[in-house]
Amino acid sequence: MPNPSPETSRHDQIPELNLRPDEAPQPPDRKDLFSRSYEAQGITAQSVEELLERLRLMIDDPGSLINDLERKIRELEPPLREAEKLCNELYDELDYDGRGEPPPSFEGEERMQELRFSGSLTAAEQNELAELTAADEAWKKAREDKHAALREAREKMAALQRESAALKKKIGQYSSDFFRFSHDEAFYCLASDDLRGLREKVDVRGKRVTTVASNGDVWQMFAEGGAEEIEIFDVSLPALWFSELKLTGLENLNFDDYTELFGRGKDDLLARQKAGAGPIDKDIYQKIRPRLSPQARTFFDGLTGDGGSRLASTNPWNGLIRYRENDLFIGDIIKDREEYERLRARSKQTRYSIRLLDINEENRRFTPDDVVFISNINYMLRDSLSLAGNLAADGATVLLTTSLESRLRPEFRNQSMALAPGTKLNSFGLELEILSVAQERRDGATVIKAVKAG
Questions:
Q1: pLDDT per residue over 372-385, tens digit each?
Q2: Between the CA of residue 378 and those of 126, 146, 345, 355, 404, what are the distances in Å?
Q3: With contact defined as beta carbons under 8 Å apart, do 205 and 346 qualify?
């Protein structure tokens, strides 16, 4: 699709939904669909309440969490010792010497083979052969059972070791203010991506889009662009819940209520924080609360309840739920009432799904009909490009970003061309096109389109 000329706006390329008020699509009720998706991954309202309590403790009393983790590590030690002991015993019984040598054969093997290859056997020898054969089968069965027990013991030992290592890692995180609020805790809900580099240059009409949730704004760009289906994923549950809240708000609130719900810009949010208020308006939230999944509703009840404002902040390292760094807090798509109503109408005709997912572990094959937006999900550009190569293997278009041009340059140091919008180059088995280049963090994001080379 050619880039639009100054005389041709994005909206001129996408047919308008010219509906009379009585024909306008009614707000879909998506809460049951989203709730089933959460429940399929073991996320219930009860587990959300437990998550909120842990969030509070991470701020108020990380020491109690560390003590609890240390207790769990101690509880793992006896079963781990038992698993190690059983492994050693089974190795001894199976006659392994630690060098991978084959175990000795059945002790009657030689006599059994001698009888089997004899020309003729007496009745006594036939009975002896039958007894030796039965004993050999019993010996083999016993070894098979011991091998199975050894595999089970080794798997149990490895699982216990992984669990213990993960708990020890969390102790380090909870002991540091920086790491306590890191990606590993999966409470990340911050975005610095400026989507202007994507809006005018990526055609998603009729496409299936899979996008990171980020702070809950990103899907709006793809809905505005005419995507037929949008799957929102993230490793952060709050990021998914904010996406659900913003989607539900868009489809059920007018422009004034929506902007009041999330704050009218960064200054408004900072003022709310200074006053000890939460990041979302309590009264407006109550208007759409019944239309949220039980999981999202439980989370935002906690966030808007007494003391809930401490869990969220516009400051990246002050509080666990974090927000956009740029001033376009309500999104790069919603700038005015007209665009809000246009996006609102389109969104009601879009199919959505939400998944808790680490895209690095996704085994699904994406097709040429798919567009996948991963932002700077692995932070280091080299890692993000490697992930993009996997996702684009079957023809999908992958979109990724990096915050500074200086991070992009080292990955293409052997290619002397200037890195400017429109630049095309090859790396990681991909054909890459630079859609926009950010010189400084406040200048947005360097946006890259990646497709399979060749």
A1: 999 887 777 788 88
A2: 70, 43, 34, 18, 15
A3: no
